[in-house]
Design goal:
517 residues, 9-stranded mixed beta sheet, elongated, 4-stranded antiparallel beta sheet, single chain, Rossmann fold, 2 domains, alpha/beta
Length: 517
Amino acid sequence: MSPFAAATLVFSTSAIVLVLEVLAGRLLAPYVGVTLETFTGIIGTVLAGISLGAWAGGRAADRVDPRHLLGPLLVAGGVLTFLTVPIVDFLGAGVGSGQPDAIVLLAFSGFFAPAAVLSAVSPTVVKLVLTDLTQTGAVVGRLSAIGTAGAIFGTFATGFVLIRAVPTRPTFRIVAMVLVVGGLVLWAWLRRAADGAGAADEGHRSGPVIGVGVIVAIGLAALLSLASRGPCQFESPYFCARVVADPEHPSGRVLVLDTLRHSYVDLDDPIHLEFTYAQTMSDVLATVAPAGQAIDVLHVGGGGMSLPRYLRADRPGSTSTVLELDRLLVDIARDELGFVPGDDIVVRTGDARLTLAAEPEGAYDLVIGDAFGGVSVPWHLTTREFGAQIRARLRPGGVYALNMIDYGNLDFGRAHAATLADVFAHVAVLAPPQRLRAEVGGNLILVASDSPLDVAAMLARNAARDDDEAAVTTEGPFRPGGGPGQASLPNWADWLGGAQILTDDHAPVDQLITTRG
């Protein structure tokens, strides 16, 4: 094998391993979400595959002519890449959890084997091209550097180009086909080279049988991959999205992003807010200004645009500026969820931390935070520094209200509330009493302002819907009308329990949040 061919093979297989690793995040996201734990499980699994593959490939190359190994390794890598999609779809449907054990199980099942097989190529190539022991260091070092360069290329190409240009599952199938075709060509070429050098073996007699078996394996793997559709109706670089009709309400639609039911929209009635968190947001909105008065609202996260549509219908003349990360979600809201763009609703796409910097200071009566990456608010939108940026965009008396999810001991919820209290003079956490006591998990609505909050009015509207919500505030616990249940709510300091303040230097959101009760 020429030095150029060896370098190309090592570069390509190393690149493909990293293509699979980066794509793994998108393939797993609909089943286990997008969190630090997700990428930790993927990276650890692929590194384990690389480690085992390099060791096993080197040992095999010492025992078998490398010319008989390289073609089969590429073909096997292609078959396993085809199978990655149906394996993840089959197991992911039953995982139902974003816990570390489920993440590692899913990542291992889908990606360990192809990473190991493809990583066996590099030491096999080294064995094939190494003809002079005095050049061992130079050969191994050169091919190792080329493999690393391939891995860098695969990472950049996938993250910056492939994910945006091609849906995830077709990318897996294209990569698998490239490996299979390349492997078959290499298999035939190196077999002839070995035969010409007098290195034929007894297994060569069974070539037709092996050939039929290989073709059958490739065909079955490809068919399984093509038959696996996955849960995505729409796919972007950030989300697997689908719109689900409400079987009990003909005009109702639910926007599902990865594992989260993100937005509910009534196509015929924009005033209708189905989700409790959205109803509570409307309670907060009602206290910002008298009923019917137009207000200016900044939305951090748009999703299905249910709250901008609500504001347009409930308070004509109001304006909404929506900071939405994903352009596809804006298109889905327009095409599937009844959103009609207009001068009163302006959408700016991009990361909210960056687009917020361009918004004028002191321009908004209300800022609504409803941005999620999986079940968590993205960490850089939870910090003291981001809170200060929000505060600067509010008018005197303005309010910041955000939606978040937490379970267990509510460590993330407490830390987020403590962070807001470090920025704003008044903070309230709205949720059912049992949730505030950390007996059950779910949505928490955090409300912050430099002016006193009319928590009584917020909860009075809530009680009028027969919802049972209470509040823990910087002024103390609160339930509508007081009552014996108020005593069971902790005061502010006890509820925080010494929670840490989240900063740009330290915001371990993925470690703090509990995703299930």
